[in-house]
Amino acid sequence: MLKKNLPNILWFCADQMRFDVINALGNKHINTPRINALINDGVAFRNCYVQNQLCTPSRASFLTGRYPAAHQVYRNGNAFFPKSEVLITKLLADAGYDCGLVGKLHLSSASKLEKRPDDGYRFFEWCQNPSWEKVPNSNSYWKWLREKKNQDPNILFSKNKKYLKVGVPSEFHQLTWCTETAISFINQKRKGPWMLSVNPFDPHPPFDPPPEFLKKYNPKNLPPPLFKNSDILRQKQFSSVRSQKLRSVNPVLDNNINLKIKDNGDEGTGSRPPEYFDGLGIKAAYYAMIENIDHQFGLILDNLKKNNQIENTIIIFTSDHGELLGDHGLIYKGCKFFEGLIHVPLIFSWPKIYKKNVISNALVESIDIAPTLLEACGLEIPYYMQGKSLHGLLTGDNDLNFHKEVVVTDFNDSLGSSEINNFTQATMTFDGRFKLAVYHSHSGLGELYDLENDPGEFINLWNEKKHKDLKNNLIARHLDVLMQTIPPGVERIAPA
Question: What domains sit in the chain, N to C, each tagged with a CATH number?
């Protein structure tokens, strides 16, 4: 029987949003007043890490509360989602929640029409990508454009295929559709609690904010991407590692895809100076996209307040992974473990129960979200979930600045498409100071950064003789931690 007074749940997950793009958390170059307000009303985790750098395996992890080694969803473009895996949304639906989704699901290939698992969503308004509709009438956002906005999406998205551009006006933007659709679901009459996943496409590339937001950011007024000339030489060591683009600046080839770049020997390194691909222009557009997210997210919160639902609604704001954004001469994503790619925002608010105006320095992971929700709702956390509930931190019952000793990210040939055909398998552990990445498929290749003394991750200590003992000790611990990602198997019910 469903317990009384259970909280509603609003889970807003941006796509490819870095950790360092929120004003209240230290970025004074960006305007995020509504996210700032959410932090004032809740708890923000400074150190949340995803379990994979790509959409599908990362989303599979936070929706199951399990590491990729457990759910075995390693790649973008999978044929299907394993029937054996149970989503948090299904558990909530079985407990009596009315569950809805707006935007992406992306647990399997969405190149045509995504095959849904038993996901628990009663309300399902799907839009994988705002700029295309592979199967007629499958994109709910396109249907909205046609029926509510009198727009032909084929024409709206037919022009300007560049990676950096001015996007469609706000009134026609996918984020506006997300907001209107989310409010429609929230305002439906129902007897029990609801759970809503809002999964917009932004700030995923292309970098194409509405013109009203783009004009707010002058690239000249922004700090440049993290880059030193040594990055180009350093990335040569990783030229055989799978990335989304062999050359991070491949978007400049959009106008002539057959153009061959020849220069001083850095062809194929995967790294270029940020000015080569307008790193500041990309950052300005990216910041504008996030301000648009902030605005639309705020409208959803306004509706909750208007309907007196905000006090008993758990609100989560996070992302599936980050974006390299020119750091180290790289853009997009792939088998890299830099902070901009694997470190994401995570904010919880539940005014009725959780602490307010708190910033936690605890190490946490995306897989911790699912067990947190179950504990908050008084539901049993399944034995097979590997995430660790944050509920005690959020209520103040546990130490707000300690949760885990180490966080884990892995890459197991995860990229669905790449100009690099080599099989790539790598794992990363981070203890709050030392970040160790081991490229298991590339003998002898690895990274070791001391983020306390090198927050920009410019100095790879992997081959430094004076750090040999440190490296060996971290590798030993690395192996111990990876064993914890192995699934528990069948539940034990007897002593022998």
Answer: 8-221+275-397 (3.40.720.10)
